[in-house]
Amino acid sequence: MRTRRLAVVGGFEFTPEIHTDARGLFVSPLQEEAFVAAVGERFVTAQTNHSRSARGVLRGLHFTTAPPGQAKYVYCAQGRALDAVVDLRLGSPTFGKWDMVEMDAVSYRAVYIPDGVGHAFLALDDDTVMSYLVSTAYRAEFEQAIDPLDPALGLPWPYDMRFLLSERDTVATGLAEAQARGMLPRYEDCRQWSASSDPAR
């Protein structure tokens, strides 16, 4: 498993080894030993999610109020996607910074998104399937959204594509307004919650 630190503190990219033969392939996108070596704690999975998207579907930018927060481990099981990780944590040394990772069902590259960090992806092919492991169960009242096209973020989406967003994402607020409204999580709260929620600690 190859590991890369993202530009967002606490975020990582993981690229697994792929085993192929005449029958097809076998790959393990999440490996605990490599994850703990990079992140310093186990990834506790409370729920798994699965989405299928047409080319041009842009999902996000989403995050979960912390606490309870929600960390994510995401990979592309089919098709191709451009994945964005944005630091929305007030007080973080990388607040407002982002990293982009191209994912596909060739490399099975995955990203780890810690509590309080925003996540979005753009499907680059039809029938793009994204698989998520998440650290907390979904609760609608804690889910938040930031406009993924907010110019203040400067995310380098390929603007030659026609985007398809949900109604919720279309009307999502920009980063500055979210900060003014007190919507954004605090870095220290996210770190404390993450540490306290790991049963191995």
UniProtKB/TrEMBL annotation:
GO terms for biological process: dTDP-rhamnose biosynthetic process; polysaccharide biosynthetic process. InterPro entries: RmlC-like, RmlC-like_jellyroll, RmlC_Cupin_sf. It comes from the Bacteria. The active site is at 62 (proton acceptor), 132 (proton donor). Keywords: Isomerase. The record marks 138 as: Participates in a stacking interaction with the thymidine ring of dTDP-4-oxo-6-deoxyglucose. Pfam families: dTDP_sugar_isom. GO terms for cellular component: cytosol. GO terms for molecular function: dTDP-4-dehydrorhamnose 3,5-epimerase activity. Belongs to the dTDP-4-dehydrorhamnose 3,5-epimerase family. This is dTDP-4-dehydrorhamnose 3,5-epimerase. It comes from Streptomyces aurantiacus.
